[in-house]
Amino acid sequence: MTDRSGLRADCASCFGLCCVAPAFAASADFAIDKAAGHACPNLGSDFRCGIHRDLRRQGFAGCTVFDCLGAGQKVAQVTYRGVDWRQAPGDVARMFDVFGVMRQLHELLWYLTEALELAPARPIRGEISAALERTEELTRLGPEALLDLDVPAHRQAVDVLLTRVSELVRAGVGDRRVDRRGADLVGARLRGADLRGANLRGAYLIGADLRGADLRMADLIGADLRAADLRGADLRGGIFLTQFQVNAAIGDDATRLPAALGRPPHWSFPAPPPGRAVLPVSRRAAAAGTPTPRSRRGRKPR
User: CATH number for the 177-295 domain, one of 2.160.20, 3.40.720, 3.30.43, 2.30.29?
Assistant: First the structure.
């Protein structure tokens, strides 16, 4: 894989896996409770969402945030070769577990593909290519092999490489780099902050006021940006940022994003007051909301 075309959700080629596999809890993000493995009542027989154009107004803002990074269509069309969960009821639980594993592998593919494109990472381009090829090979395993895969171990190996990439990229800003890995910055007032080249891996930035902040060349892998106010912020050149993180944040037309990411349609809606998260948050919930390389799990449930 040399581009990110296969790492973007293609719902038309999926089985509505994200509408069935996870559990929903009635909250500001979801209007209803839904048990894991049960189809959302809004999912149609064609695997399309019946309220897709009106999700936020009907209380399903969480659905507009999620991004499978192409894992859904990979499970549907490659792993299961077009046989959906309604056609194979005896394999439903396993298919949903496979989807969870695939989502993690596709996240790694996203990071590695980006790393391959970064000019400062050229000295280790061969290692990045090898890790990318290996991860792509893993996504083509059968269901049982995927569920037996030690995903945390693979993530750890990849993360070591991504850390080296991060250091090479962020060296370009000199001594001004800030290290806030895993920092508790929930609701922090960082308006206009100079965070160029900052290490924000796994930082809790939920509800943080980042209006007008300079985040160029910042490492944002696993940073929890739920309800973070990015209006007017500059994230160009920010590394290891995903669409999922962007979707979870607040932004506007003045927010500058990396070229590979799109501006969420819901950013055109009025934003809540600065510094206020739209969800009640605990540290445990924060870690669950935006998984990081150290918090992911991919082994078959025992």
Answer: 2.160.20
Residue indicated by tokens 């965070």: 195
Question: pTM higher than 0.70 for the full model?
Answer: yes
215, 196 contact by CB (below 8 A):
yes
Cite the residue boundaries of each domain of the chain with CATH code 2.160.20.
177-295
Q: Residue 155 contacts by C-beta under 8 Å, 6 or more apart in sequence?
A: 104, 108, 293, 296, 298
pLDDT bracket for residue 270 (50, 70, 90): low
By the 8 A CB rule, do 76 and 53 touch? Answer: no
- Cα separations in angstroms, 30 against 24, 63, 269, 294: 7, 8, 18, 27
How far is Cα 101 from Cα 91, in angstroms, rounded to an integer? 16
CB count within 10 Å of CB 228 equals 29
Taking only the tens place, the pLDDT of each residue in 15-56 is 999 999 999 999 989 999 999 999 999 999 999 999 999 999
